[in-house]
Amino acid sequence: MLYVAVAAFAGGCLSALLGWLDSREPFNPRKFARSIGAALISGIGFALAYQSGETVTLRDILIAILGGSGVDVLSNRALGALVR
């Protein structure tokens, strides 16, 4: 369960980092902190989903990484739509 949570969190952080690198803007800690918060929420969500006690495979880790990055992207899109 811990591996899945860390993988989802890492996926969200990776998505935030790649988004910042792609934007070519100066680093904004406030925006990055929002993405880290979304990554933390996704890590907790994936950990709760994998509480069933099943064994965790590489496939589960990869799904958690992709899911964590998806949560980051969706949260940024949603907040961007609300701010407009």
Protein architecture, described:
With 84 residues, the chain is mainly alpha-helical. It has one domain. The protein has three helices and no strands. The chain has helices at 2-23, 29-49, 58-83. The longest helix has 26 residues, at 58-83. Helix 1 (2-23) packs antiparallel against helix 2, helix 1 packs across helix 3 (58-83) and helix 2 crosses helix 3 (58-83).
Binned strand content: under 5%
Q: How many runs of DSSP E, i.e. beta strands?
A: 0
User: pLDDT under 50 segments (min length 5)?
Assistant: none
**Quaternary assembly:** single chain
Counted by DSSP, the helix tally is: 3
Provide the residue-averaged pLDDT. 84
Kindly report how far apart the N and C termini lie.
38 Å
**Rg over alpha carbons:** 13 Å
Give the overall shape. Answer: elongated
What structural category do the secondary elements indicate? mainly alpha
Give the H and E element order: HHH
- Counted up, domains total 1
* Major beta sheet summary: none
Question: What attributes characterize this protein structure?
Answer:
mainly alpha; 3 helices; 0% strand; elongated
